[in-house]
Specification:
The complex is a heterodimer of chains A (495) and B (353). Chain A has 495 residues and is mostly helical. Among the domains of chain A are: 107 residues, no CATH class; 147 residues, no CATH class. Helices cover 59% and strands 0% of the residues of chain A. Chain A contains 27 helices and no strands. In chain A, α25 runs parallel beside α27. Chain B has a domain of 218 residues: Cytochrome Bc1 Complex, Chain C, CATH 1.20.810.10. Chain B is built from 14 helices and four strands. The chains are: A mainly alpha (495), B mainly alpha (353). At the A-B interface, α27 of A face α4 and α10 of B.
Chain lengths: 495, 353
């Protein structure tokens, strides 16, 4: 069969199929769309839209081509159907084409007429989003409805044929966000490796395998109301992230399929990190993505935990890595920081965590029967910390007494402020698990406290010395006054 | 030893002279001691001031720190500083009492006009000492009190602006003001004070103590006197010792606070108050409305105090009846009014925020 023949047969069968489908649809809806009837008979670029539109959700809702392009769909005379009088606009202008979508999708009444359950605020959200800003070549907004949802072959979001179906959305967003040529026009600093990273993540791998329930771009960033991640309105702004992740990870029904716990969000909320981020609004506090990554999200492995925590707690990590615990933890497959501090529910660290008492984490591994001296070191460290805190408190009381007595001991009070810093540093030094190094640091505190205590005691002593001195001086002067008085009396008696 | 000195310097002659001097003895003699008390306190000021000078540094960066160092580190530095501050206040108080006693006893009358003028000058310089010395620790309260005080001076017409700049050494209270006040406090004022004090004492020595008005009509035999030396001198010494005791108790039990360092960028603290001897003027200025006719309220206040001060100063001129031997109740009434005004306004100043 010649090529020409093949093309001819293909055309005829397409027309027959299209005709049969349209006849069927027309028969069902009792509507005649002359535009479609005519365009299915045309070639290439005039045919394709008509071919696609038959599968479009709008077509199924009885919306004719004229719904977007204007014109009279009831006339087969192009002079009439495509006339200006009939409101024909042809291909809508790129800058304003979103208006044809908005005309219906932002109108509650219209949407109700189609028994639609779709929200009507998409455009309200889109028009304030970062995507609706003018494009660099000023041809309209950076993205509009058609950029993502396409045209003529639009399907419902939950229809696998839809461009924005969860398993397709990554390549849709990636269309622009992996292109340096496009992105550099808007934000040269914005990375373009998100899709590459996403593909390495647990979410990405499952998404590629066809799982529509795992997180994709829109799950975290939102769909219409997308903002830069440092914009507090963004779904992925630091303080919003825990809730975004919790949408899925706190959903027991959804997580059942992945065999994952759902208590992370509740634990995190009560943790030191959660309280700092969500209650104090401290955006430097870690959120889910700071430990798990964002686009390349995976649970940190046992060995990488100290690296993850160490990205903020640098000193602790460095000291831990040089400590004897590092080797022991690796050998026993203990997650590093997590073993003592927990993961999502990390609480405020208190000095009761160290030592040999019931509340101490040390006794979970060390006992007094141990051959090594871990138990002894833990007890000694706890004793030294408590001792410095008690000394500090007692010294403050002495200084307070001196202040109440009107003595100026502000220098000593000021020097005591360093003790707080030394206590913090000592607590960090605990991560060496080396008693000598710990003593070296904490002894600085004892020295300061000792000097301040001496100064306070001296001040109190000086206070009493002043009063005794005053008493003696007053007695001497009073004796002189009395003597002088007697002398004057005698002198004046004589005269 | 006495003989050795007497041979050379004729001490006996001086004692003879002192013994011949006499002081009227009557129910108001008590007031005669306050001049001497003010003198004692001035001597204490000079001595304690010299000791403070050895450690004080009059610059913006180190003034506060040096005073803190004096109070905390220097042996008995706290005592010297506290004595200096208390003695300054007691000296002004003694000077006020001395001045009012002279006023009520009409001792300013002829031939003692110049003693009155020099005394008034001494009081003004003493207040200048107080105002300039208040800033020297460079603490917060002093800084803002100086700001307010110099602001008031700046309200004067014509000379206000240049006077403000002269006092401050610029537009604002800065390190330049501190240097300037330090200079006034340890060089300019002591120089003026010494000259006025010397004149004041010479005048007293030359003219003797004033006698009460009604003694003019008494016969010589009914007038009672006590020798200046040793009787009056020993009595004065007795008062001095009592004052020294009071001063020591105040200095030990109520050490002068230093407060926090002045921060020119900090907002003015609540309840800035001047030294107590400026309080009646400060409080009066608060009651004068912002505008009086077409004049600034503060200017009107300063003008009133200026004129009142001038009239007070010139009392020997306008009190013509007393020297003529007639009673002048107006003087007494004016005195009572002024004392009452000062006391009441000072109390209100401390009670009202």
């Amino acid at each position: 069969m010649s090529k020409k023949m093949k093309k001819y047969i293909w055309k005829i069968s397409t027309i027959i199929i299209c005709f049969s489908i349209s006849s069927l649809v027309f028969a069902q809806t009792k509507t005649t769309d002359e535009c479609l009837a005519c365009h299915v008979e045309l070639d290439d670029e005039l045919l394709t839209p008509a071919q696609n539109y038959i599968n479009d959700i709008h077509y199924k809702k009885n919306i004719t081509c004229a719904g977007c392009h204007g014109g009279n769909p009831n006339s087969d005379d192009t002079e009439i159907s495509m006339s200006e009088e009939s409101g024909f606009i042809g291909i809508p202008d790129k800058a304003t084409r979103y208006e044809v979508c908005v005309n219906c999708h932002a109108n509650d009444e219209t949407m109700n007429n189609y028994n639609s359950s779709l929200p009507t605020d998409q455009f309200d959200k889109l028009k304030i989003s970062i995507h609706f800003q003018p494009s660099f070549d000023n041809t309209g907004p950076i993205t509009d409805c058609i950029t993502c949802h396409s045209v003529h072959n639009i399907s419902k979001v939950d229809d696998p044929r839809s461009k924005v179906y969860p398993t397709k959305i990554v390549s849709l967003c990636g269309g622009c966000h992996t292109s340096a040529d496009i992105i550099k026009n808007y934000n040269p600093a914005l990375p373009i490796d998100q899709v590459a990273k996403y593909k390495t993540s647990v979410h990405g791998k499952l998404n590629i395998s066809g799982d529509p329930n795992v997180a994709e771009c829109a799950s975290c960033h939102g769909s219409h109301d997308i903002f830069a991640s440092n914009d507090p309105r963004s779904h992925v702004y630091a303080t919003n992230i825990p809730e975004v992740c919790a949408k899925c990870h706190s959903n027991a029904e959804l997580m059942k399929g992945y065999n994952l716990p759902t208590d992370q969000y509740d634990s995190y909320n009560k943790s030191v990190h959660g309280l700092a981020l969500l209650e104090k609004g401290d955006i430097s506090a870690p959120s889910c993505n700071d430990c798990h990554g964002n686009h390349g999200a995976v649970p940190p492995g046992v060995e990488s935990i100290s690296k993850v925590c160490g990205s903020c707690h640098v000193l602790n990590m460095e000291l831990f890595e040089k400590s004897p615990h590092q080797k022991a933890f690796t050998e026993n497959d203990f997650p590093e920081c997590e073993t003592c501090h927990g993961n999502h529910s990390i609480r405020y660290v208190t000095d009761d965590m160290i030592g040999t008492q019931e509340s101490a984490v040390c006794i979970e591994c060390h006992s007094s029967d141990d051959d090594n001296n871990g138990y002894f070191v833990a007890g000694k460290m706890k004793m030294l910390i408590d001792s410095l805190k008690n000394e500090d408190k007692a010294t403050k009381e002495i200084l307070e007494e001196a202040t109440q007595k009107g003595m100026d001991i502000s220098d000593s009070e000021y020097s005591l402020k360093d003790v707080r810093q030394i206590l913090i540093q000592s607590r960090t030094t605990i991560h060496t698990f080396n008693l000598e190094k710990f003593k070296e640091k904490i002894n600085e505190g004892f020295t300061i406290v000792g000097k301040a205590r001496q100064a306070g005691t001296d001040a109190v002593d000086d206070y009493y010395f002043r009063r005794v001195g005053l008493g003696i001086a007053t007695i001497i002067v009073t004796i002189l006054v009395i003597g002088l008085y007697i002398k004057i009396r005698r002198l004046e008696k004589k005269t | 030893m006495y003989k050795w000195i007497d041979e050379r310097y004729n001490i006996s002659g001086l004692l003879e002279f002192a013994k011949k001097k006499s002081v009227p003895a009557y129910r108001e003699t008590i007031w005669y001691y306050f001049g001497g008390i003010a003198l004692l306190l001035f001597i204490i000021q000079v001595l304690s001031g010299i000791l403070l000078l050895m450690y004080y540094q009059g610059t913006e960066d180190s003034a506060y720190e040096s005073v803190k160092y004096i109070s905390t580190k220097v042996s008995f530095g706290w005592l010297i500083r506290s004595v200096h501050s208390w003695s300054a206040n007691l000296m002004i108080l003694a000077a006020f009492i001395h001045m009012f006693s002279v006023f009520f006893l009409k001792s300013f009358r002829k031939p003692r006009e110049l003693t009155w003028y020099t005394g008034f000058g001494l009081l003004l310089v003493a207040m200048g000492f107080g105002f300039s010395g208040y800033l020297l620790p460079w603490n917060e309260l002093a800084f803002f009190a100086t700001k307010v005080g110099t602001d008031i001076a700046g309200q004067l017409p014509v000379i206000g602006e240049p006077l403000l700049k002269l006092l401050r050494g610029g537009e604002d209270v800065t390190g330049a003001t501190l240097s300037r006040f330090y200079g006034f406090h340890v060089a300019v004022f002591p120089g003026i004070f010494t000259v006025l004090l010397a004149l004041h004492l010479i005048f007293i020595q030359r003219q003797g103590m004033a006698e009460p008005e009604d003694w003019k009509d008494l016969p010589e035999s009914e007038r009672k006197y006590i020798p200046f030396f040793p009787n009056f001198t020993l009595r004065e010494l007795l008062f001095w010792l009592i004052v020294i005791n009071i001063l020591a108790i105040l200095a030990v039990f109520f050490p002068w606070e230093l407060g926090s360092k002045a921060d020119p960028f900090a907002p003015a603290p609540v309840g800035i108050k001047p030294e107590w001897y400026f309080m009646f003027m400060f409080q009066t200025l608060k009651y004068i409305p912002g505008k009086v006719l077409f004049l600034h309220g503060e200017f009107v206040g300063i003008a009133i105090f200026g004129i009142a001060g001038l009239l007070w100063f010139l009392v020997p001129f306008w009190d013509k009846r007393t020297p003529a031997g007639k009673r002048n109740k107006l003087i007494t009434y004016v005195g009572i009014f002024v004392v009452t005004f000062i006391i009441v306004l000072t109390i209100i100043g401390y009670m009202v925020d």
